[in-house]
Recover the amino acids of this structure.
């Protein structure tokens, strides 16, 4: 716990970091709050980028989390266009790329993730990643002149980009290693339905395929060759092949980073060290209800985890464990998929309601006699009601102590 007049230093100005600042103020924290953001933009929401902003339905201003007046009323020091470069965890001191030295009584790490780069694509005109507001605006402009868009990556982001671009009339090919979009996450049944929807709307699918090489002319992309030898024309490529936690700046901090994905390892209360917490996409914590460590990359978790961490910062006694029911959603063409829990292609799937032909259905996922997820398609009310099945399956287990 920190005193109400203490300084909280938040590294990251996205939904998780900014949400922590807001939650602290709503909970009565009167001390100094510093929010350091790597991007030049004021805090904004990411889910609309691959949908409303990319499609042109929203102008960038609508994606902002708060108005200028609301930011002023928050009474937080918002330091933008400057990234963290290092952390002294014992002194709670952060250095930045611009040479700032910032410190706080508590530190909240909310630096998010960056798009994973694919080899052989660096420095080629017409190739871009997709993570930021600037990325969305660049792609939206480039789609006006592009003849052939290839999206590399058939997860949530890649599928949403493909759907949004195709809805604007773009010629789109979606390439990915899965047998169908999102099948590694939601299983073959839902994946096949998503594949059918994309196909019906004119998206060309290349499932189970990966990039072999790029064809260029004067350093400008003109096409790609897949690992099966197929040539695809392309004057615009979007890479949506996963992400990497932004933790390089923590290499000498003394904090424990996960061996696999380099996320910040935390205890059940999202605490990485004494008075140092992590929130959002960058945080891996012990989920007592699930009995294992997890990391979630979605907007819902960013908001819920921010609330939990803010409360732990100002509440006396041992911090409370964070044990949410994981949730994410995706909108693609005319369908909305919602998932509570952690669905897996290994799970046994049972139809609870609806039917596939109408593309209105609710599925239950079960592993080892335990409900691990419920997934709904165009049935938001029913899906939300069955969230309880996942919550009832939680089996609380003690968390390991922090380092």
């Amino acid at each position: 716990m920190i005193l109400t007049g203490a300084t909280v230093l938040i590294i990251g100005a996205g939904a998780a970091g900014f949400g922590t600042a807001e939650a602290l103020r709503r909970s009565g924290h009167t001390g100094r709050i510093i929010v350091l953001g790597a991007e030049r933009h004021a805090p904004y929401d990411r889910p609309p980028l691959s949908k409303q902003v990319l499609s042109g339905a929203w102008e960038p201003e609508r994606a902002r989390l708060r108005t200028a007046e609301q930011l002023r009323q928050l009474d937080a020091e918002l330091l933008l266009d400057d990234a963290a470069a290092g952390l002294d965890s014992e002194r709670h001191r952060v250095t930045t790329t611009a040479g700032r030295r910032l410190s706080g009584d508590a530190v909240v790490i909310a630096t998010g993730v960056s798009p994973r780069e694919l080899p052989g694509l660096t420095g080629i005109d017409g190739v871009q990643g997709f993570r930021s507001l600037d990325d969305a605006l660049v792609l939206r402009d480039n789609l006006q002149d592009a003849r052939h868009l290839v999206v590399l990556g058939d997860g949530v982001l890649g599928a949403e980009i493909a759907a949004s671009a195709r809805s604007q009339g773009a010629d789109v090919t979606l390439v990915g290693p899965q047998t169908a979009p999102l099948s590694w996450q939601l299983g073959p049944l839902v994946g096949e339905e998503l594949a059918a929807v994309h196909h019906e709307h004119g998206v060309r699918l290349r499932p189970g395929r990966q990039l072999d090489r790029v064809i260029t002319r004067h350093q400008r992309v003109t096409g790609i060759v897949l690992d099966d030898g197929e040539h695809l024309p392309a004057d615009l490529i979007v890479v949506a092949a996963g992400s990497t936690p932004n933790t390089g700046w923590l290499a000498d901090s003394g904090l424990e980073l996960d061996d696999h994905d380099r996320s910040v390892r935390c205890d059940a209360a999202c605490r990485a060290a004494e008075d140092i917490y992590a929130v959002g996409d960058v945080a891996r914590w012990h989920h007592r209800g699930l009995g294992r460590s997890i990391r979630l990359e979605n907007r819902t978790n960013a908001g819920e985890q921010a609330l939990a961490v803010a409360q732990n910062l100002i509440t006396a006694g041992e911090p409370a464990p964070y044990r949410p029911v994981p949730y994410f959603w995706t909108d693609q063409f005319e369908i909305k998929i919602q998932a509570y829990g952690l669905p897996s292609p290994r799970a046994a799937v049972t139809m609870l309601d609806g039917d596939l032909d109408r593309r209105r259905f609710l599925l239950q996922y079960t592993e080892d006699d335990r409900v691990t997820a419920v997934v709904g398609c165009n049935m938001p009310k029913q899906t939300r009601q069955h969230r309880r099945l996942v919550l009832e399956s939680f089996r609380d287990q003690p968390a390991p102590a922090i380092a």
Observations:
- The chain has three domains: 8-114+244-314, 117-241, 334-391.
- The chain has a mean pLDDT of 96.
